[in-house]
């Protein structure tokens, strides 16, 4: 499987202030991608920025994938200046993907801000393989930070909107809503967003006895498991503390394997 | 015209002068998905220690202008796991293996080298005497590296030399006033080659939190940013010692590799740029061949040290 | 809130902690067309020698990834011409002047400092003990710099200290294993501050001609490429000496300047990035003020060395 | 006088293989520019390339200037990707300009390859202040390397085309033609192009007793005279060898002041 692709940019839209959606056309990439995986984008041909930028795969089409990203620094700023018709070098798909085990009547997604990015693909996959539309908690700072609502609606999901300033949906945090949800039968939670949110989602899931998978982030250099830059302390095998590579053992982790106490508040 | 890219390090003959820098290629498995890694002159593996190491607390990586800082702290599987689970893959692929080793004492280096030789774990050994990331930057900020003391370099080299017949490479640090001194010591100690250079000590601070961007505070700078520094040191060392120099530091292209060979490196290693382009070693091998053809050079060894200084 | 950016170096009080690096600002005339140079904390002038110097044979400059190599070789008008033709302009503009000096012996440094003090040519003196470009790289490639010998640093500093009451700054080289040693020597010798860092030795080769890109073969690397190295050395030195540290090396923005102050620099200098943006010192002064306002800091000195190491 | 300008790119055309013309709109810049001066362009907003790129001013309009450039490395490659409507930071005008002394019935221009760049503005100026159309030797490797021919024709210049491969005009070098030219009365030669050509033009001018002004190049960092990177050995005052800054004492030099022996063949 080839993992380096010259992709044609076939769509590039501003979807909210500072947020863009980009469609990367490449059949090979599309065919091998699964929900939860990510790509590493070469945002410049020179040495600035030096490293590629990791981005979750948002949706998987027959001939390409889309990404959803927020401009926050130099790399994403350059990315945002690229035009439809230009090409970009994409490495991927990388990392593992969301497990969708059988026998769970309830799939619950908790997305904070740009953390929504990997979920459209996941919802499509769950619908396809399990036929159950997941329930979604879509949280953000304000109305502008709630992305993909329409897509999820079209897919038939029940959506809880939450904003910190109350400008849309309920006022508060994603976890406020999560705590109030009571499901019947086995439940799986998928989450992605700011680390403090993920930690709290994990805690609530532990209390409720729910399985929780999180898409985690870390500074990455290689995206392929060789540099050992992106690790998090985890306990994946019995009695064995390890440094798990977010790019290889992750980015999707059962939140119970992460040693949260050792991560601190980065 | 036929171009020979073959070079030798000690008694080891390599089909071309291109390897990868320790710590940027794991044990070869991952990038084997990108190209046939047996095409490399050699695979240099991540530093091995006697026991597995977890490495430093993250964050371990920061991007910098035209480079990066890392403070991995020698996370590795340890020699046992390497021999059992990583080596068979490299052997099956028919790779020439340079095993990079790190010890906290002469005895550990000796033990690592002995075990590697006994169990066929390496075709050459590279002693990492220059890792900047294994000391606690907070308590002892002078981070003394073996490679900063010519005397120690000789002792360490000699000890390992005495117990192994494997070609022996000593990897030195740029964090010195004059790198020719430890290089001479390595030669005197019996090294078959020196690797020039490991990373430069560096640091970055998040001005909003006022915390260092690396949890370990200090890290090692690599990438094209340091290339001019590495090249100068390769030039210095190759005019000083008689053993081959393996040049590294910011090599991103065949042209960069040629600069190092022309400056005096017998072999080169690609490090951080692999993270941008895993295929770069293949591009370099092809580029070296093309250059030799264009410039009518039938043997790459003729290029080594051919810099013209007026 | 009122923000005070005032700092002091020895008994010299400066209105803000921003200066320019010697050799990147001439004697102030050129960039005075771009902004009011009296707004700078101080103007640091190109190294002065007793006699005018023609400098090295060109090419003297090569661009490198996120930086540049220079081998100017201290071309300058000499102290006489400076005092007669350059100084009046700086005085008329009411600039605070840091005069950087270079000598080939202790006596020359002493003579330069004496004359500068006598004729009112400087408000502070910076001794350049670390220029990498004045030795012939071909004949003596070890290029011994005064700043590489802690003993010499102390001697040179002490000699100049003995004959001048002007605030005395000693500029050190990053081409050492441990920069805290010469820094301590400068302090012992009586320096009021140390400048950290001069350029790193580097080299580049044109692979087509196989000639070094600099006619002098070796040059000094500056620019953002070296910023992590400079920052680490500033952090080391500022925890070691009690005198102020003037930080420089790759500073391009207020955020970069803040990194140095937080790491422990009392003052910072902008060098190569002036070539990209002559207005950058003004942007930095404004940016420091803005940062202090946002972070509720009334005195920039409170920021100095405030890095939080866990 | 402000020397840093955000310029709007109002025209950007491929004029020959690898050669482009770009019009930089800015009144302030235009007003202060003279033929022979140059600008320093910020080709990237990041650190790669790190330094600005020097380019001669080709023509001076009422509200801007044009440049004519050849793509040869990283910087000019990036430059060539900029589009009309984008902005670029331009420093200038820099350096001195071509002297056009009175009392010379003959103005002769010798341009090699992209060295033609500063001459359209010079011709316009000579026509304006002296009313005499200069005679032009336009030399290049082949037909594709002869630029601005039409412009010079429109300005009424007598043109000698010379190509190394004979694909247009006379076959040979610019200096072959120069040697055959005999003028009556005082003559000034202006030249720009590859260094070996300029050296030979200088030699011929010395033989013929003509005054010769060359536009010279050197690696530049600051373009403003502060870094001392761009110097050439010269003898500008009596008995005083100096290192003349191409960016400040130049780029236009009376070729007699340059110490050609000390320059070597870079
Ligand atoms: C597996 C994975 C998937 C991601 N998916 C998305 C996504 O779908 N949409 C999206 O907007 N962002 C996503 N991110 C975060 C995104 O990679 C960063 O926002 C981006 O790299 C910032 O680059 P920059 O140059 O704009 O910012 P800068 O701050 O200039 O970046 C400087 C350095 O820090 C790194 N960095 C900065 N922020 C992060 C971060 N949060 N995580 C990891 N590294 C970071 C950069 O890669 C770079 O090396 C993902 C990160 C990871 C690890
Ligand atoms: C005063 C002056 C006027 C010029 N006018 C023009 C012009 O009108 N049209 C044009 O096409 N070119 C002109 N040049 C040359 C032009 O500046 C270089 O071709 C350009 O900088 C190359 O940049 P690059 O990044 O594409 O090449 P690279 O080779 O990648 O550049 C690497 C470095 O070398 C420098 N460099 C490369 N070639 C030259 C050169 N010939 N002279 C000086 N520095 C160089 C670059 O500035 C850069 O620092 C002029 C040069 C000077 C000094
Ligand atoms: C992420 C990373 C990990 C590294 N780990 C090691 C190591 O384990 N042992 C070692 O000798 N060098 C290590 N190095 C140093 C490299 O082998 C090499 O000397 C250095 O990075 C310079 O080359 P480059 O600029 O091409 O990366 C590491 C470098 C990086 C970037
Ligand atoms: C072109 C150039 C000339 C320099 N000349 C001098 C000099 O004359 N004296 C000196 O002490 N340092 C000199 N330096 C070093 C700078 O003052 C500064 O220490 C160094 O460039 C690091 O800062 P920067 O990365 O911001 O440029 C020079 C640097 C450059 C780039
Ligand atoms: S990013 Fe290199 S190991 Fe994960
Ligand atoms: S380019 Fe700096 S002095 Fe000319």
Overview of this structure, please?
The complex is a heterotetramer, with two copies of chain A (266 residues) and two copies of chain B (310 residues). By secondary structure, chain A is of the alpha/beta class. Chain A folds into two domains: 4-94, Elongation Factor Tu (Ef-tu), domain 3, CATH 2.40.30.10; 106-216, Nucleotide-binding domain of ferredoxin-NADP reductase (FNR) module (Rossmann fold). Helix content of chain A is 20%, strand content 35%. Chain A is built from six helices and 16 strands. Chain A has helices at 27-32, 74-80, 119-130, 149-154, 174-180, 195-208; strands at residues 4-16, 19-25, 38-41, 53-56, 59-60, 64-70, 87-94, 106-112, 135-140, 158-163, 170-171, 187-192, 211-215, 231-237, 240-245, 252-254. In chain A, the strands form three sheets. Chain A has a seven-stranded antiparallel beta sheet. In chain A, strand 9 (135-140), helix 4 and strand 10 form a beta-alpha-beta unit. In chain A, helix 5 (174-180) packs parallel to helix 6. Chain A is globular. Chain A starts with a strand and ends in a 12-residue tail after the last strand. In chain A, 50% of the residues are buried. The model of chain A has no long low-confidence stretch (mean pLDDT 95). With 310 residues, chain B is α/β, with parallel strands linked by helices. Chain B has one domain (7-303): Alpha-Beta Barrel (TIM Barrel), CATH 3.20.20. In chain B, the strands form four sheets. Chain B has an eight-stranded parallel beta sheet with strand order 3-16-15-10-9-8-7-4. A four-stranded antiparallel beta sheet of chain B has the order 5-6-14-11, with no helix packed on it. A two-stranded antiparallel sheet of chain B has the order 1-2. In chain B, strand 1 (7-9) and strand 2 (12-14) form a beta hairpin. Chain B is globular, with a radius of gyration of 18 Å. The chains are: A alpha/beta (266), B alpha/beta (310). Chains in contact: A-B, A-D, B-C, C-D. Chains B and C meet through strand 11, strand 13, strand 14, helix 5 and helix 6 of B and strand 11, strand 13, strand 14, helix 5 and helix 6 of C. The structure holds flavin-adenine dinucleotide (2 copies), flavin mononucleotide (FMN) (2 copies) and FE2/S2 (inorganic) cluster (2 copies). One flavin-adenine dinucleotide binds at residues 38, 49, 51, 53-56, 67-70, 72-76, 114, 117, 217-220, 251 of chain D. One FE2/S2 (inorganic) cluster is lined by residues 220-223, 225-230, 245-247 of chain A.
């Amino acid at each position: 499987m080839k993992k380096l692709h010259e992709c044609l940019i076939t769509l590039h839209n501003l979807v909210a202030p500072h947020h863009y959606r980009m469609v990367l056309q490449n059949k090979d990439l599309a065919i091998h991608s699964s929900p939860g995986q990510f790509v590493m984008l070469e945002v410049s041909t020179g040495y600035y920025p030096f490293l590629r930028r990791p981005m979750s795969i948002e949706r998987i089409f027959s001939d390409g994938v889309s990404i959803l990203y927020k401009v926050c620094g130099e790399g994403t700023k350059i990315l945002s200046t690229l035009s439809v018709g230009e090409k970009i070098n994409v490495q991927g798909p990388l990392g593992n993907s969301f497990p969708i085990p059988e026998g769970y009547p309830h799939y619950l997604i908790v997305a904070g801000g740009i953390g929504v990015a990997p979920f459209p693909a996941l919802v499509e996959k769950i619908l396809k393989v399990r036929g159950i539309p997941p329930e979604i908690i879509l949280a953000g700072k304000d109305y502008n930070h709630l992305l993909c609502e329409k897509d999820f609606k079209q897919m038939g999901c029940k959506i809880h909107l939450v904003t910190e300033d109350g400008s849309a949906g309920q006022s508060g945090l994603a976890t406020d809503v999560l705590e109030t949800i009571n499901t019947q039968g086995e439940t799986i939670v998928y989450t992605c967003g700011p680390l403090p949110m993920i930690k709290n989602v994990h805690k609530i899931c532990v209390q409720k006895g729910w399985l929780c998978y999180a898409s985690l982030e870390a500074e990455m250099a290689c995206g392929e498991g060789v540099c050992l830059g992106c690790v998090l302390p985890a306990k994946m095998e019995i009695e064995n503390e390890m440094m798990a590579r977010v790019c290889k053992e992750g980015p999707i982790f059962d939140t119970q394997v992460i040693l949260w106490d050792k991560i601190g508040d980065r | 015209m036929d171009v020979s890219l073959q070079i030798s390090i000690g008694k080891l003959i390599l089909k071309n002068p291109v390897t990868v820098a320790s710590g940027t290629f794991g044990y070869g498995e991952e990038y084997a998905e990108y190209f046939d890694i047996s095409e490399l002159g050699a695979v240099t593996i991540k530093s091995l220690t006697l026991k597995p190491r977890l490495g430093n607390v993250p964050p371990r990586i920061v991007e910098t202008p035209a480079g990066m800082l890392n403070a991995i702290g020698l996370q590795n599987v340890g020699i046992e796991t390497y021999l059992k689970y990583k080596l068979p893959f490299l052997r099956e692929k028919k790779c020439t293996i340079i095993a990079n080793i790190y010890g906290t004492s002469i005895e550990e280096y000796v033990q690592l080298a002995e075990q590697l030789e006994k169990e066929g774990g390496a075709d050459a050994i590279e002693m990492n005497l220059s890792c900047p990331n294994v000391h606690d930057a907070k308590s002892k900020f002078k981070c003394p590296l073996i490679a900063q003391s010519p005397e120690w370099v000789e002792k360490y080299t000699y000890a390992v030399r005495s117990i192994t017949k494997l070609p022996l490479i000593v990897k030195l640090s740029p964090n010195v006033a004059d790198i020719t001194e430890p290089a001479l010591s390595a030669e005197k100690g019996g090294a078959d080659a020196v690797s020039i250079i490991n990373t430069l000590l560096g640091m970055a601070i998040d001005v909003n939190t006022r915390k260092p961007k690396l949890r370990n505070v200090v890290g090692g700078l690599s990438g094209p940013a340091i290339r001019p520094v590495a090249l100068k040191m390769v030039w210095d060392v190759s005019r000083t010692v008689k053993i081959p120099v393996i040049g590294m530091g910011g090599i991103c292209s065949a042209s960069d590799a040629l600069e190092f060979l022309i400056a005096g490196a017998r072999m080169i290693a690609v490090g951080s740029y692999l993270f941008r382009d895993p295929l770069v070693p293949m591009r370099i091998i092809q580029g070296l061949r093309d250059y030799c053809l264009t410039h009518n050079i039938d043997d790459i060894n003729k290029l080594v040290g051919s810099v013209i200084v007026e």
